[in-house]
Amino acid sequence: MRTLRNEIMGVSFDNLTLDEAIDRGAALAQGPGFSYVVTPNPEIVNMARQSKAYEDILNAAGLVLPDGIGVVYAAKILGCPLKERVPGIDFASGLLDRLEVSGGRLFLLGAKPGVAEQAAANLNARYPNLTICGVNDGYFKDAAPVVEKIKAAQADVVFVCLGAPKQEKWMAQYGPQTGAHLMVGLGGVLDVYAGNVKRAPEVWQKLGMEWLYRLLHQPSRIGRMAKLPLFLVDAKKASRKGKS
Ligand code: UDP
């Protein structure tokens, strides 16, 4: 069952708390059928504004979660506030807790060679009863062998970490062929689980400043982030247009 969704600049977000989103994700992971989760930040919403096909892929997801304080601000500006930010990595960690108990099988897909293996080793240390049934890096040419590998591993859940928009397109196109029940597009999360990229300390997260912490540690992201203030300006313009 779908909850009511709040449309932010063309993308319809589920209005859920983190805990509610984890409950929904855990239910979807049990099947039947296949669905995928997307975690758009302002950059992803902007990509969707440039491509109707990509916008459709986001809106067809089983769960659309606001992974950025920018989306939460835009929602407020547009007069359809969201309950809270739901960072992809927090959603993923909540799902891991559930999989450990339910015995669901997890496959890790993405990042540079060796990263998913390291992430799996670290996750197994943290979640001793979690079944990680396979891994694959994110720099493959053909999808078919990867689809077969996920199928053979009998994965219930796949964390797909290929960056946007590749991961969302991949989940929508190939996900149903893998036999998995749930795929989650998670960007650079495997780099964090592998210990290669550090997440912002909790106080930065609580202040909604995780983006600034990431920028300070990866200054090369400045080009991507410079577009974010414009996103809020566009939201303001859209809100004025809506009122007039
Ligand atoms: N990546 C991949 N295959 C590709 C391109 C990127 O596996 O063809 C991986 C990359 O190694 C990184 C992740 O996708 O682990 C994208 O990370 P980024 O920080 O850009 O994502 P964000 O968290 O910002 O969405």
Compact overview of the structure:
This protein is α/β, with parallel strands linked by helices and 244 residues long. The chain is built from 13 helices and eight strands.
Fold and architecture overview:
By secondary structure, the chain is α/β, with parallel strands linked by helices. Helix content is 50%, strand content 14%. The protein has 13 helices and eight strands. The strands form two sheets. Strands 4-3-8-7-5-6 form a six-stranded parallel β-sheet, with helices on both faces. A two-stranded antiparallel sheet has the order 1-2. Helix 1 (18-29) packs across helix 5 (88-102), helix 2 (42-50) crosses helix 3 and helix 4 (69-77) runs parallel beside helix 13. It is globular. The two termini are 34 Å apart. The model has no long low-confidence stretch (mean pLDDT 93). Residues 110-112, 138-139, 161-164, 166, 187-188, 190-191 line the site of uridine-5'-diphosphate. Uridine-5'-diphosphate is lined by residues 110-112, 138-139, 161-164, 166, 187-188, 190-191.
